[in-house]
Amino acid sequence: MVRLYTNDLNISYGERLIVKDLSVDIPDKKITTIIGSNGCGKSTLLKAITRIISHQSGAVVLDGANISKENTKILAKKMAILPQTPESASGLTVGELVSYGRFPYQKGFGRLTKKDYEVIDWSLEVTGISDFKFRPVDSLSGGQRQRVWIAMALAQETDIIFLDEPTTYLDMAHQLEVLELLQKLNLEQDRTIVMVLHDLNQAARFADYIIALKDGEIVKAGNCEEVIKHDVLRKVFNIDAEIGRDPRTNKPMCVTYNLVKGDFLHEEDNYPLYSAAGASN
């Protein structure tokens, strides 16, 4: 059974249609990565699935219910999102910021319970930042701050976590640190992870399922072997890519590429847009 899927989803900003008739299943307890060029609708799709923005038609369905009609606190107990640019945490300690993840469970005056404190401490421990609990968030490095935001998402105790470009502005070591943490959460706790990534090789290395978007439509969705391919990348990114094998994981990787000049999509090059055959209805 698929817990989360979209059905004929259309999302617009004003008169501009960004996502078009998009139907796709999100595999449960797997890592799904959304890839595509800037402005193709990756972040827009993520925001619509998590109800940060509304969609014009179609549906996002979670556990058999249309999320547009779901109670906010109930939805917040099922899915958490780490946006591309989290709101400022100026003046907050690490523990205080992580405690915000307990909002869906608070009643009355919103005082934290013993259970809340236990979950907060667990989230800090899992993400390896227990020693920073009383330190100001502003005093941490980029990678450490990203771990704090992930800890806040974990404190929501949701089965599904969405992340919009979680490695942005991080150096290579901290990018790997964050992605390995997310992989650990998936493997050890069965968390469903859905994230937007720009780096194709990171997507291939860490994702079980990849959704490749172009102009608000799915070009291809599947495992890395099905998506990280010359013809798919040509269609999605307008690049002529050389695909090799990662010597450590044996997964496909983009070794090098050139821009395709001029009218790169001739009739014989057309790659059919993805059809969500078997998508839930």
Automatic annotation (TrEMBL):
Its main location: membrane. Keywords: ATP-binding, Cell membrane, Ion transport, Iron, Iron transport, Membrane, Nucleotide-binding, Transport. The lineage of its organism: Bacteria, Bacillati, Bacillota, Bacilli, Bacillales. This is ABC transporter ATP-binding protein. InterPro entries: AAA+_ATPase, ABC_transporter-like_ATP-bd, ABC_transporter-like_CS, P-loop_NTPase, Siderophore_ABC-ATPase. Residues 4-240 form the ABC transporter domain. It comes from Fredinandcohnia quinoae. It is found in: Cell membrane. It is a peripheral membrane protein. One of its GO terms (biological process) is iron ion transport. SUPFAM superfamilies: P-loop containing nucleoside triphosphate hydrolases.
